[in-house]
Protein 1
Amino acid sequence: MTEQAKFTDDTVLDLARYFRFQWEPVQEAYVLLYPEGMVKLSGSAGEIMKRVPGGTSVKSILEDLEKAFPGADLRNDVLGFLEVAHGNGWIRVKQD
Amino acid sequence: METAGSGSSRTKVNNPLWLLAEVTYKCPLHCVFCYNPTDYTTYGQELSTDEWLKVLREAREIGATQLGFSGGEPLVRDDLEIMVAEARKLGYYSNLITSGVGLTEKRIAAFKEGGLDHIQLSFQDSTREMNDFLSSTKTFELKSRVAKLIQQYDYPMVLNVVLHRMNIDHTEQILEMAEAMGAEYVELANTQYYGWALVNRDQLLPTREQLQRAEEVTNKFRERVGSKMKIYFVVPDYHADRPKACMNGWGSVFITVQADGTVLPCHEARMLPGLTFPNARDHDMRWIWYDSPGFNAYRGDEWMKEPCRTCPEKVKDFGGCRCQAFMLTGDATNADPVCSLSPHHHIVTAAVERAQQRDRKTIAVHPIVFRDDKSSRELSRKAEPATPAEV
């Protein structure tokens, strides 16, 4: 069910339950923390994930990124990453 | 270079990721498979609240992100709430590793409020009679009550069950109970033979057939429940032919701080001869991690002997566990004898063979030793380290 998520602009995303997203100064990277584990995010993954917590639509994630990085065509990369993140269980689709 | 001691001078030292705070060795239970040191009664005074807060701050500064509150039973410390709140402020992802004994609603509410992320509830035999915990109504009721609290406070249900020859045949019932409790993660951890478990190895080591049945049952259960319950089956290393990548390498990611402030690269390292480990009261964690001789002793691979030294698998398992090598061969620089390439592998296979023989009732074993203060004092008085009688 969850593997083949195709997100639309209106899909609202949030961090998966029990996950935390934060900046790690020692590693100079954004990380995801969860029971007994940690994922260190690349710079671009960090920029995308930064906009997910709290329940954000795909559309506003994209708009916000385009504002921060004007001129770049981000849509496919961002959607691709979000689907990978969802497949890995890092993020969830917020119902209602 | 951030190196010292007898370790490799070429080893690059990364920042630590894990801090295990064994805040007390006091425990209301007396588990025969406990990995705590058998001589804990000879240890000095526990760190104070402020000293623990200093440990948390300093380990966080050098990069630790995952924090486990363990023991003993960490709930024995009535200042755990203060530590939990500080841990959250510092940015740790924190985990309470508990038997559940003493976890009241008032305390769990305070932990939630303070920002504790995760609770791992473990199952033990709590009766001196060694009744299987499944038949112990008292234990079951306590665990059920605690499990409800854990769910009520929106924590993931993470159960840890230590398996040994006296309960491994009940793996199916254990899993059914976990399912009934709504567990999301279940760790079936076969006993590791350290501390009290090593003293009781003959009583605890399962036979090959028991292990095989338990794995079959687990696989069948996995198929039935699918993704709603994740089951980790940790194979006992005595039954394997390659060692575990202990601590992901010595001084690589992991720090243990013992109740009296002694700082170790793993829970067991204090036993190793010729090494002195610093106390968090006397040194800051940065020096301890990067510069103390103890943390550098087995970094890298220059300390290795054959067959590890030239083994292509050394990058994968780091030669296994230094403490197990010492306990079983008398020399921490030997290969972990779990490895079939070790010249000492026969020590491990002999122990497994004893388990098989015991099944056929052809050998006698000493009475089981419960983890308590009295036994700790007795074991500490003995000149020899507490190892089981050789074959």
Protein 2
Amino acid sequence: MELYLIFPELVLLLCALLVIFSDLLGARKEALAGLAVLGLLIAARLAMELVGPDKGGVAFAGAIVVDDFALIFKFLFLVSTLLVVLASVEYVERFEGVAGEYYAVLLLACVGMMLMASAQEFITLYLSLELTGISLYTLTGLLRDARSSEAGIKFLLLGAVSSAVLLYGIAVLFGLTGTTSLPQMAPAVASGFQENRLPLLLATALLMAGLGFKLATVPFQMWVPDVYEGAPTPVTAFLSVASKSAGFVVVLRVFHTALGRDPLAADWAAIFAGLSLASMTLGNVVAIQQGNIKRMMGYSSIAQAGYLLVGLAVVPQSGVSGVLFFLVSYTVTNLGAFIAIIALSDKLNSDRISDYAGVWQRAPFLASGLALCLLSLTGVPPTAGFFAKLFIFNVAVQQNLLWLVVAGVLNSVVSAYFYVGVIREMFLGAPVDRTPVAVAAPVALALFLAVAGTFILGVFPGPAMSVASAAAGSLVP
Amino acid sequence: MIPLEHFLVVSGALFSLGLYTVLARRNGVLVLMGVELMLNGVTLNLVAFSVFSDPQRLVGQIFAIFVITVAAAEVALALAIILRLYRNRQTANVDQADLMRW
Amino acid sequence: MTTEQIVWSIFFSPLAAFLLICFVLRPAGAHGLAGLATIVGVAGALGASVVTFLNVLAVPGHELPLADYPWLTIGDLRLHLGLAVDSLTSVMLLVVTSVSLLVQVYSLGYMAGDTGYSRYYAYMALFTTSMLGLVLADNLLQLYVFWELVGLCSYLLIGFWFHRPAAAAAAKKAFVVTRFGDLGFLLALLALASVAGTLTINELFTEHKVAALVGASFLGVTALTWVALGLFAGAAGKSAQFPLHVWLPDAMEGPTPVSALIHAATMVAAGVYLVGRMLPLFQHAPAAMAVVASTGAVTALMAATMGLVATDIKRVMAYSTVSQLGYMMLALGLGGYVAAFFHLMNHAFFKALLFLGAGSVSHTTGTFDMRYMGGLRRAMPVTFWTVLLASLSLAGIPPLSGFWSKDEILATALAASPGLFWLAMATVLLTAFYVFRMLLLTFTGEYRGGGAAEAAANGDAAQGADAHGHGGVRLHESPSVMALPLVMLAAPAVLSGLVNLPTIPALDDFLMSRTVRETLEAHHVAFNPLLAAFSTGMALLGIALAWLVYGVKALRADSLGSALGGLPYRMLYHKYGLDFLYEKVLVGSLLYTVVCGLFAALDRYVVDGLVNGAGQLTRGLGRGLRRVETGQVQAYGLAIFLGVVVITAVAIVRG
């Protein structure tokens, strides 16, 4: 049996059920979090077993593939979920009795994403996408207040529409090629390009729209600010990194495997270049105007999606490795920022940037960690974000996409304005009251891990870069 | 036998009607019905393609069943959230859910 | 220790101080030891720099062979972590560590009792580390990393007194404006990596790399020119060259020792260092060289005129710094490699001294506004005499250090471009004038009340926190920890010119290390006694004019026997002559007001306007675009639908 290839997912599924039952039996919230952490660690350990030559493979009649490319994402999802679980130990107090469900659904979302990373066939892909999606809608609407419900319904309705659009694209591709398997689709797409050009382009556009929703790229980004603002903060953190990575794993897999041959590849690369420019510009420019930090981070995540798409505007393997390294550094950086925001917003009981004034004096560790992560998002060395941008821009320069690089660098200047604005508020503002903000140990640990990752990737990006290149090699030979 | 094009036209029409409903109706429940219509359009597409391209393997039909199942789960969740929205705001109209904007 | 370990210790010694303060002293609450830690760390770096300097001096070719370590690989581009030490580096190391050490000692007195004492020293240690890392880097990426870190430290230090809104705003302005320049730097890096395939500095100078860079072109201009312009944009941001100079005067909101170290002696010199370091590349791009030279000359002149009207003593210094950096850029643009670095070194010493002197003055008077100073010569003899020496050096009076290097620059300009030469010459006059205006307003005449008077004039009780002096109560010399660095800086400010006398061009020989000698066309300009005499005459003229305007005016206000003593008695006697002069000065001052007003207006409305305008445009755009996000879920759905339509249309049209 090839079942061992999905052991990590199965363990997590089991763990999610255990969390729900323990909750029913009246386990304490801390115990539930511990159980979730344990499950994630075991899953990660099992996933480690799949690393290495000849360890992975294809399972379930080609529906699931475990290669380096899938594995790097699985680890990314496991780490993100782990850090989010650690960071929310205090925040769960706000869930009023549904803390168990929170952890369980979070784990289910993680399972869905890990399956997305492995899916090599459209039915599996759709199902894992919806498993993730429905879990995330649930998490978004988990608080009882009006904002959380509003964010939930907006997210759900738009998500449903976008998955209908995605399905329509899948159906067209299925009709043209007679298969739902990505590798089998590739030759049929390539050979049928001349006679079926219009339906193929329509299908590509539909796939872009359906998946662009997950990536949060313009013009499918509209849900992002509202949902980020209204969702419980740990869920926002999870959305901003894991959900985006999950979008990218699917986009990379689908476009490079099924639609990766010229001349169609040149078409979608050019469109992604345009979307990239629009996303980074809109995200950065509007972020300047925001007064709510979660909403600002929402626009920031749109902008970061724009930088990431630079790697999709480049067809060769180097583009994929650029995206992978960027996603790794973006994940640790953005999570770091959000962990600090979760703790600060919870204690300050506000998401207003102006209420962050002088928090440096009240919570030096949180403020310094947040500042470092924001600098990394700006792209200031020596942080992960600097090399992420450098690599991805370098790839684009090699491919003569100079205009996009100039726009990207210009955008990162603009982004300095609002990222540094928050830092300025925290370090140079005058605090209203000076009572120190206490940080729970798991939250501090999570922040420390994320910040250390941001810093290490910013000083010695070499090893991570070679891992990214190897993983890209397994997707695009 | 009815040619494939007819199925494609009907499914396209269903999808578009659904999209129109989603964009135009205010009541959240009706919007949800629009989403269902869109999904039904897709489902019809899948089945028609399957029948015409490879009648033996039933891939499209299987896909269709999954889509229907997922849609049911989605609707259940959506109704729950709409209910909560109604409790908070005393309305089920999605256009009044605009606490967060800009 | 091996030579290499010594070089590394230059970098790690202040870094250790920084880490010690952050992770041991501050958590332990031993804030008072922070100053000591930084001083020891920087002193260690200075010691190692001296040893390294001697090592470099002893090696033929003046380059130390150092190992480098694989860092990362991007595609075909292999990067190494490594240090490069040649004669230029060793001189920069000496300048940075020695000025830094004196500033740290001075800060013991200046920052005593400040609530952010240990934070201040932590930033200072980090800054020194970054600056040393910048100077030591053997490849451009490493240099860029430290370049940004230096900028970050500058941000933290300008905004050090964060409770003042002006400080916070200035910090952000500095950060954002310099990042505009860094945009060019980063693009240049990417272009170099893609065309030349390496970022190691010395490898870039090899013939086939240069040929590759000259061979490739973009928009009809060679890649090399683009690269040079990009690097210069970065340098212009950091070295406050027109039109990116707008941040430096505002940066004076930081503590004065910070201004002395960062915004006078070291960080702002980083831009000059970068252009100079890359000069073997720049020389193959004549267009870029012309841009560098003319930007330098224009900056020098413009900043000097603005120095004439500033009333804040630190702003006078800031404009002066911008102006002097313009000189260095001018020299580099004309190929005057040695002249530029000779001036950089001299300037670092006398300008640091001037800043520390200004700090000392404000420490006593409680204000930075020269209109409320005056008559401090008696009360602060050490400050007065040291500042006088530095001012003479800045004005270019022989045989002080500034004279020799400025003269080399002028000679280079005369040989290359008469137009730029006259701009530079006009700047000499203005420089002498504004620096003596500062000197006379501050130290002569009668004391005009200091911070108390300023507060009264402004009608508010809130005083600048930097000016925590004793306004008007009792004037006194600053404590010896502050006075001592002044005296110690005065020595190089006077003497550092001697290292490159026309007859014994020691620095000239030393700076032309093997690589530079092989790759750079030497521009050696012989000493010209006539020119030297002329420029000295101009400087003296400037001083005389300043004296007539400010010295004499002070006399008129005073009665006999006041601060200026018996000397002016004779001048008073020639009352008519004075009236005549006053008329002259009045007419002159009209011209003066118009010209300077014009430049100030240009600066405020055009340059500042462009910089701010770009910001406002972006913000306006943001205000408009955020309205797209209406909060209506159905509008969002419509956007998805339209997105699909547009993408399909574009895809079809494209193919």
